[in-house]
Amino acid sequence: MSGACTTYVSAEQEVVRGFSCPRPGGEAAAVFCCGFRDHKYCCDDPHSFFPYEHSYMWWLSIGALVGLSIAAVVLLAFIVTACVLCYLFIGSKPHTKLDPGLSLQTTDHSLWRKPDAML
User: Fold this and answer.
1) Residues near 110 by Cβ (< 8 Å), separated by ≥ 6?
2) d(CA 40, CA 33)
3) What digits encode the pLDDT tens for the residues 58-75?
4) How far apart are CA 119 and CA 106, in angstroms?
5) Is the N or C terminus of the chain more exposed, i.e. has fewer CB atoms within 10 Å?
């Protein structure tokens, strides 16, 4: 890393002329050229890859954690509601045996015996 940022083409396809670090009116400690091919800036850490302060990243992480937590609570509430509704639906059905369609009654076996006269 050096203190000279070369000319580059920005993400908006604009040519940005090269500049040296630190820039006039910038931080005196920002003596390194940092960034990517389409976005360069002066920084005080030669291993910096992100042009924002670390506090910005923490707010982004906290926001993501809050969002994921809310999504997890909504998913859990949905699963619990579905289980309760299934339990209530199954519990509200009458407990009768299924009708197989055939009348299965015991028959009188005396009709099946041969009469004594035929023996």
Assistant:
1) none
2) 7
3) 566 777 888 999 999 999
4) 26
5) C
